[in-house]
Every structure is written in C-alpha cells, then in structure tokens.
Design a protein that fits this description.
This protein is of the alpha+beta class and 197 residues long. The protein contains 8 helices and 8 strands; from the N terminus they run αααβββββαααββαβα. A 6-stranded antiparallel β-sheet has the order 1-7-2-4-5-6. A two-stranded antiparallel sheet has the order 3-8.
Length: 197
C-alpha cells in the first residue's frame, strides 16, 4: 500500500504535468495530495523491500524505526523519524527530523532546503548539499532548530527507507510520525515556541 501510494501519487502528478521540486505549484499539488492519503503506516512502509537499505548518505531522505538510548530522560521522541542526515558523529549521526514541525512549517522548511539540492530536476542521485555550518548560517536556521536530532546507530531498529527525491514532498506529509510521551500537538507547540511563532 505505502509504496503504491508513493508511486500512484507520483504517476498521477506526472500525468497532470506536475514535476515535484520544479515549481511551487507542483510542490503544493504533491503536498495536498499526500495529505489525503490514508492507510499509510510505519508497518506497511517497512514491508516495501525495494526501498530498504542498511546504509545512509548525507543529504538523502530516510525513514526508519528508532528506540532512543535515553528515552526515559527525554520529554518525548519520535519512533519513526523522517530525516535528512547531515553529519556523522561517533557511534551515530545527526539528522533533521521533519516530523518535529507541524505540516505548514515542514513545507516552509522544505522550500528553503530545496535551495541546497544538488540537482534541481530531482533526478535519483540528487541530494541536499548540507552541513552543520551551512544550516547554522542559512535562513533555514529558525525552522531547523527543533528538528536537529542525534541518532545512535545501535538504537536504529529497522533498515532505512530511502525516499527518492521526486517523492520528498509526498513523504513530507505522510501521517507516520510516531511520538511517544506526548501528542503531536504538544510536540508541535514546543517547536513553534522554539522557532518563535
């Protein structure tokens, strides 16, 4: 169901002349369509074997299952992050988890991140050209602040689902965030406070 949802949404968009990433209108079409998708869950995404990988690369988009080492100390956490990894660190990696933003702010952040994409046509090898330094100095800084998370590799509980660039805007709006110890509304309220909105 999940990969079918990705593929069907992409096919429908391409047939109607929408090419994700090429224009604001196309991105908006994909985002609105993704909001209407139902039945997409963490479980059926992980059963889609063709998109699974055990390795991640900086600047690509991934979803995965995660069980934090310090979950007892955390006020809340996402068990199924949607991230752009941007830096390897000892024993893990840093990533931008887009789930920490409400949908409208995800869209704003993603529009800013498209300025860092290596290929505006969003061909398969496209990725974000990002580093911590670039993110800190960019206009994206305020939106990224609540999203930067440290992940410990030994606490990753599934393979990584590699989201190809033309599907980024679909994945952005899939309702698969899985916050523990707080509701989506509570997490997003805290993120808005951090951003200053």
């Amino acid at each position: 169901m999940a990969i079918y949802a990705f593929n069907q949404t992409l096919a429908d968009g391409l047939r109607s002349g929408q090419v994700p990433g090429r224009s604001n209108e196309a991105r908006e079409w994909f985002r609105n369509t993704a909001k209407k998708l139902t039945g997409v869950t963490e479980g059926n995404l992980l059963r889609s074997k063709d998109a699974l990988t055990s390795r991640i690369e900086v600047g690509k988009m991934y979803m995965f299952g995660y069980d934090p080492k310090f979950k007892k100390e955390l006020p809340y956490y996402d068990r199924f992050p949607l991230i752009f990894p941007f830096e390897s660190v000892s024993g893990g990696f840093l990533g931008i988890n887009l789930h920490y933003l409400p949908y409208v702010l995800r869209a704003k952040l993603m529009d800013l991140l498209y300025n860092f994409v290596s290929d505006p046509k969003l061909s398969d090898p496209a990725r974000l050209k990002i580093s911590y330094e670039v993110l800190r100095s960019a206009s994206t800084n305020k939106y990224i602040k609540p999203c930067i998370k440290h992940y410990i590799t030994s606490h990753v509980r599934t393979q990584f689902i590699n989201i190809v660039p033309v599907e980024w805007d679909i994945a952005l709006f899939l309702p698969v965030e899985n916050f523990q110890k707080a509701t989506n509304a509570q997490v997003w309220r805290d993120s808005r406070k951090m951003i200053g909105k």
